[in-house]
Structures are given as structure tokens and as C-alpha cells.
Amino acid sequence: MNSKHTVFLFLTTILLTILYNNSYSQRRDSITFAGIQWNTSAVSKGIHWKQANISDIFNSRQEINIIEIDLKKHKNSLRLAALPRSLEKTSVLAEKSHARVAINGGFFDMKNGGAIDFIKADNHVINTTANPSIRANAYFVFNSKKVEITTDSTLAFHYPNALLSGPLLLEKSLQQRLPKNSFNDHRHPRTAIALKDDKLIFITVDGRNSNSQGLNLEELSKILRWYGCEDAMNLDGGGSTTMYIKGQPNRGIVNYPSDNKQFDHLGERSVANIIYLFSKK
């Protein structure tokens, strides 16, 4: 056997080993996720909160919170709250808006306030896109009859409510190809929104702590796909990642916001907008 054949066989063996290890890890992680024993609570009829701390997925520990919203029952209660030139904590915005449940929304100007990407609430444009980014490539749009996650920018002008953020993670149950960069590839706390059958999914994954290390966006996409979501988009994460449920302790904050570098419910970062369900009660 000559040296070229030896080198070829050696490289082929390495490649097959890498592919096998990756495939094995994915199978193991998907099995781990399928076996999660969620702590599930009914927030109200048609709204369920699920929580789990997973000790070993993607070779890491993760704290995940999910809110499932039955759109057949609550589509008319879906809202955006947005501040054009200021910032406020998610819990405060939620309380002022009479929210039953809420998550933080899109990216914002940390110095001056307001969203840095297009956002429209109840037919009022709150902010326009300051500097277009390949990261912000998906719109969450809705009216009283329909809710969509789309890359079609024209829909943002036809719907009364629209929030631009991203990147898009799932489209018709298929993971999207993500550019290689630090934002996508490094592990951070994450917030995302997704559609699953007739349900709207709010999800937060905490991070920057040994109790929850956070996910990169490929890992987040897999979580959402394994959960059965069809369309999904990333929202603002990091210190902004926050989930609110009315009536829960700690001003309704049920995840572990990381902005105070502690694994508690007190580390909220002020944000410019939230996605929420309005509650009359």
C-alpha cells in the first residue's frame, strides 16, 4: 500500500469517527430531551407552563422554561408592548400592560432605548430598523385571526402587529442554516418564540451560570425541533432573557435572568419591548 492510500485511509477513518460521534451525541441528546419529566402547571385554561433543569444535554446543564398558549382560546389576547425611546424591566412592562404571561422581545438600543429593528403594535409603528442586520431576518406578525413567523417583510406592513428579530431558526420543521459567528456559536441565555400546531410557544433557556450554561443557536434550534415546533425565531437573549407569569413570586419572574450574575429571579435587564397575553382579570 503506497503512502497516498495510507493517508487517504487515515483521513477517511478520522472523518467517519467524527461523523459517528456527532450522530451518537445527537441521538443521545434527543433521547435525553424526549425523556424530560417536565414540571407542568396550568396558568389558566389553554395556557401551560413547563419547567425543567436538565443535568446533561449537549454536555451541559440547562434550565428551560416553556409557556404553551392555545391560540384557539387566546389569539385575541396576544399583544406587543413597546417603548419608542426608553427601557423598562419585563416584569414592569408586563404589570403595566395587564399581562397574564410575557417574554422579552427584540433587540434594542441599550443607551437610548427603543428597538433597533422594526416593531409595530396595534397599527402604530413604534420603531423602524436603524441598521439592517443579517441577524434580524424574521418577523413575528399577528392579528386577531392569524399568527405567523415569516421572513416575508411585506407581511409586516399588512399585519397590525409585527416584530422584527432573529435569526430564523425553524421553517416548516426544518432547521435553518446559520452563519458561523460568535453570536450564533457561543452559549448564551436565549429567548425564542415558536409555533407548534395551534399553539404559540414562549421559551427561555438560562445561562452564564453553572446551574444553566445556555445554548448556542444550533442547540436551541434542535430543542425547538425536538419539541415539535414547525416555525421558530430567536429573540433578544443574554441578560435580557426573561419570562413572566402573573401571580408567581418574585414579581412574576419564573426563569433566572443573568444580568446580576446570580442564579436567582432578580437579575432582570431593562428592555424596550415584550410579547404578552393581555388579561382582564
The number of domains is 2
Strand content: 25-35%
Total strands: the figure is: 19
Q: Uncertain segments of ≥5 residues (pLDDT<50)?
A: 15-21
Order of strands across the biggest sheet?
Answer: 1-2-3-15-14-16-12-13
**Largest sheet at a glance?**
8 strands, antiparallel
| 3D shape | globular
Termini gap: 79 Å
Radius of gyration: 20 Å
Structural class: alpha+beta
Helix content: 10-25%
Number of helical elements: 6
What is the N-to-C order of secondary-structure elements (H for helix, E for strand)? Answer: HEEEHEEHEEEEEHEEEHEEHEEEE
Mean pLDDT, to the nearest integer, reads 93
Organism: Sphingobacterium paucimobilis HER1398
Protein name: Phosphodiester glycosidase domain-containing protein
Pfam family, one: NAGPA
Textual characterization of the structure:
With 281 residues, the protein is an alpha+beta fold. It folds into 2 domains: 1-35; 39-278, no CATH class. It is built from 6 helices and 19 strands. The protein has helices at 3-34, 71-74, 90-96, 155-158, 182-185, 217-226; strands at 39-44, 47-57, 60-70, 78-82, 88-89, 99-104, 119-121, 124-127, 138-142, 147-150, 161-165, 168-171, 174-175, 190-196, 199-205, 231-234, 243-245, 270-271, 273-278. It has an 8-stranded antiparallel beta sheet with strand order 1-2-3-15-14-16-12-13. Strands 8-7-11-9-10 form a 5-stranded antiparallel beta sheet. A 4-stranded antiparallel beta sheet has the order 4-19-6-17, with helices on one face. A hairpin with a 2-residue loop joins strand 1 (39-44) and strand 2 (47-57). The N and C termini lie far apart (79 Å). The model is unreliable at 15-21 (pLDDT under 50).
